[in-house]
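User: Please predict the structure of the protein below. I'd like the answer in structure-token form so I can feed it into my own downstream comparison script.

Assistant: Understood. Taking the following sequence of 170 residues as input:
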Amino acid sequence: MKWFADRGHNVVGVEISELGIREFFTEQNLSYSEEPIMEIPGAKVFKSSSGNIALYCCDLFDLPRANIGKFDRIWDRGALVAINPCDRQRYADIMLSLMRKGFQYLLCVLCYDPTKHSGPPFYVPDAEIKRLFGSVCNSQCLENVDIFEERYKHWGIDCLVEKLYLLTEK
């Protein structure tokens, strides 16, 4: 996120974990302010002092879209795979509503044998991406990376692939 901000982009993120947001600002050595989101009890927005990074600490499903606007680019690493499969369509509908004409959406998902591990993180097959986004988006798999490590063996799997998709407007 800082990489994009350093290149002049405005960055908006949504994260459920306040600790994760604080760690981001600390690790990137960025000063920030925080303020409540009045429409959502207990929710906050953390803003970099430079003003071009705003991270909302709340459930994405609760965040009024008017608060965050529309985007040319979206980078989803870890959101779709964390969302319960029964909520995926709702999530996809929100993402699609946030995209400007000519958008680019990078989507990172995980592939493994779902009979061996039920999630989270959840398995997201190619067909699911087409089902969720295919009516509006072209999808192109840019990368398949084997990320299996010893620490994933306790899931009962022996293969874990991270896939990166580029979704663009049809």
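That's the full token string. Residues 118 and 155 are 9 Å apart (CA to CA).
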